[in-house]
Batch of 2 targets.
Target 1
Amino acid sequence: MSEIESKAESILKAVREDPSYLNLWSAYKRFQKMDLPEPEDPNKVVRIAVIGSSTLEPLAACIDIKTRLEGLAPKTFVGGFNTFRQEALDTGSSLYQHNPDVVVLSVDPWSLLDQLFLSKFVRMSDDEREEALNNVVDEVASVAETLAENSTALILVNNFVVPVFTPLGIVDNKQTMGLREFFRVANEGLMERLRENSRVFVVDLDAVAGDFGKSKMINWNTYYRGTVVFSESFMPVLADEYLRYIRALKGLTKKCIVLDLDNTLWGGIIGEDGMEGIKLGNTSPGLEYVEFQRVLLSLYNRGVILAINSKNNPDDALKVLREHPYQVLREEHFAALRINWQNKVQNLIELAREINIGLDSMVFIDDSPVERAQVRQALPEVLVVDMPKNPRLYRETIERLKVFDVLSLTPEDMKRGEMYVGKRKRAELQRTAGSLEDFLRTLDLKVRIRLADDFDTPRVVQLIGKTNQFNLTTRRYTDAEVREFRDSSEYRVYSMAVSDRFGDEGIVGVAIVRCECTTWVIDSFLMSCRVIGRNVETAFLARIVADARSAGAKEVVGEYVPTKKNAPAKDLYERHGFELLGTDGDGVTRWLLNLDEKTIEVPDYIQLIEE
Amino acid sequence: MSMNDIDERLTEIVSKVLLLDKGEVTDGLRRKEYEPWDSMAHLVLISEVENEFGIFFEDEEVVDIWTVGDLRKIVASKLGV
């Protein structure tokens, strides 16, 4: 580590130990004075812009350093005081010159309203109230839309804090539109107007403030001295909310929760207390565990993978999963199970391999501090949750984790749990089949490849953002960039959906091809780890090659850019008859398929569904 | 709260806001002569001191803090030590 990097690390260490506003601010200022080298991995860079109606450097500082704590390299632009409209409208503004990946738009609704709005509100007619409301919503929403049009960034728009005070007192909601309702309706308006925009997200500032305490979210001294509209204690909390989006954008989302059983999913020890003795039921003690499991099930239902890592006799533990009347999570909810007397670190490594995800997308939940410490030490990339001693707080602990966010929820996400059951069954079949080909023949594989349409695009963007293993070039493209490729005559964006007799995997493959006259260059080629080992990549390449041939191309060129994780994709081109063109200094290999001499056939056990 | 205790906590805040090691914080450090001590840093410094000690500075007092020594003196007087 160079001197400057170790200095950076020591600054961040202080923040990690105490993420107070003072430490975040100090770290931000210190980083600004440092001349840090560019990160080796350009995907680590996040260009952030914070604009709005108040003094925003303090908030930007918190976002910047919290982003750095995630291992990313933020470059942060802070907009001028109340100049967000000009910054958004002028395509030559320093905001756009910054070329942001994320724009935080923080507009205080009171800065948009008449200065006497509060004073006059009680005497205003319903029409006047509605007009003011529409204006406020429109001002913020139209700036957000403009930002989305003029940039490729993700736009994060704060909604409005519903005030605690109203001059109408307890009869506020006896009015057609009271003051508090005014802001609630404005929030709904903002939400509805921006719902269909895939790059604009309304951040629920009102909910974050409500959770934190609205009475503490402003420090009136800094508010009046410097128009800093959020208090020192609130800003780090608010920054955490923006970080959810930044993590999702950068593919740092956790995918899998690995659970202990005894004293985690139920109270007591099944091997000692038995089925009737463990605490699991519809009254306390026992209800705590049932409700904790219900939250886990809610996450499973939206695509978080569950797995078990428990020191137990498998028969004892499985009996609870299968037969206990109050058990919420059953065997079929778990993608993989390790119930044995092995070391939990080893189990985690095996689970990651079986489920085929990285250890860095796993969350480990165990009541034992000893097990947690072991995992934390041996596998620092796993998120080990500090579970409270009190099981009544388990539920809240998992609800506050906020590490499973995705920018869009696709049908593939919702069905993920079922897909893993299919995977387990497939693995069982494979054990009994003779050869790999025999096994694949029994699967009844169907592949649908097409140019990505509007319906496919959210999933395509998601796969581009998070696929690490079977990814030839690991080029991350945003929603806007993918849409540009789709609209361009030079590029083709393909999606591949796969199904077999155990289930429909949905869209699991993406290829982006650049057509340069007689040469087609495969810019990106990636496939979800779920379908590795079914030779569907051969069908995918076969389709691209066939399209290239019919468009008059003479050759197809592919690249492999090695990363820490993409070894599974390394021999793709070699396996399919491409010739090695050369290797550059970073180990990037280029491959060529001469269409006059060679072709790629769809395997006969894969049915290609043409569209 | 002893004077030493106050000094220690003030030095900590000043060093963080003005990007100095604790040993580099001296009473003679002057706002107009030290570039990182800009108006934003002054605002942060004042509010952090207010929050830490539960005190409040009038606007005139904020303007009249020119050196670290000035800050120490006014905090001590507000805390009655």
Note: The longest helix of chain B spans residues 3-17.
Target 2
Amino acid sequence: MAELAGTSHPGADPRLERPFYDSARRPPPALEELVALWRYRDLVVQLVRRDIVTRYKRSVLGVLWTLLNPLGTMLILTVVFSRAFAAGRSYPVYVLTGLLAWNFFAHTTVAAIRHLSSSGVLIRRIYLPRTIFAVAAVGIGLLNFLLGLVPLCGIMLVTGVPLRPSLLFLPVSIAALTAFTLGVGLLVSVLAVNFSDTAEIYGILLPALLYLTPIIYPRSILPATANWLIGANPIHHLIALFRTPLYEGRLPDPASGAVALGTAAAALVLGWLVFTARADRLASQI
Amino acid sequence: MAAAASPEPAICLEDVAVEFRVPHERVRSLKEYAIRALQNRVTWEERLAVRGVSFEVGRGEALGLIGPNGAGKSTLLKLIARVLRPSAGRVRVWGRVAPLLDYGAGFHPDLTGRENLYLNGTLLGLSRRALDASYERIVDFAEMRDFIDAPLRTYSSGMVARLGFAIATEQRPDILLMDEVLAVGDRTFQAKCMERFNAFRAGGTSVVLVSHDAQLVASACQRVAWIERGELVRIGPAAEVLGAYAERPLAGPALPAPRAPATASADPGGLGARRPAS
């Protein structure tokens, strides 16, 4: 009975420009998302802004908290552990470099879960590139991370750890950490939409990973039998990629560096592919 | 442009279906899923929120979508807005789409009106540069000049709606999607909304309006599509379809019979039951 007017479309009408959107002729989702994300790049800036402005709007110290947080943790850990872990040089610099990189990864991936699952209202109503929530979370995390480098340099000067030319390697380290964080953030956030206990499981996994990785303790305190475990932990190599140029003032070991870069690239590609393949279903799931 | 009378399409839906996967037992935890997956007990059924729907909206034309709650009207809007993808069939859309769905969805109470303007505008796909250029006009249209730097939580709901409307309609879109919203605010502001709406129509904007208000649909749309249980019951001139819809038997009409029991859930009453509010 439902007979319709004007359903048939005999071929391509030369008067028409190409359709702006054609559900039957879509580029691969991973590529389509990349183009959309670029078109919505101003939104990334707005989302980052929103987060920073709203978080600090009613606090006295404002953005300073971003700097004080890792510094406070470093101070506590130094007081507690500097005797126990006195093996290396400046323990504060050791722990602060590790914590900065770790916090960037851990806080950002948790934020990616929160951002995506709290955006249901938007995703159900308007079209947006859905990766934008993880990307914005990474943007916020990256900003905090970079700000944290300032007090780090101060601590290095105070504790007599020299700033060496190996610093110039840091952009590579930070890029790798960013790629890894975005990849994992995309994966866990899309998983969290499907399974509500993802956030809880991830919340247990993260501290476990923190203690499995030489971040607050030096690798030298571990027995030689644990070497394989540390070597197999990609997070360790990613942290080392950032820490070695600062703390030891030299370039990372090529083998360790290669593992770090490979892990970062693999995580990003995997996260992007999995997320974009499932993105269309988000509107009916969140 | 003088193309208003031409049959040039702006939206074209061909035999479109939207499927929802409804798990037989709701598995919400990863642990449970892993156990079930191991036992091969993850099962679901496909339900159709929309099926076999085809229609076209010409350039500058206004189409009204009517039908009971849960019929699939909002799902059709979401297909056009690219929020949902069709599981079958084809959706084509020519031009920029502006959704006028729910003002305030992208607003944050702690940000000022100005900050929200930029946030909301970029959420709708506008660039910062475009918003810079139209900032003054948006503020003036929304009559917000005195409050734009106050946090949004201090606004009345009418003010929020005005700001949302002003942002969403600042640039004439090629296609305007409206879900129960046409004019907002008090009477004078509603008149401004209608004025803008009519200017868009004159400029060649196509409109798809979902509404339960027969009078509004009759006044705003030339054609009306009656949707029920995910299917297109009837499409035609507004007066005709609205008349037929008003006279429909109210006690659970038997139409339309499920045409494809193989894919449908064989549970026509359940169609759209799982859908988000429409």
Note: Chain A touches chain B through 46 residues (CB under 8 Å).
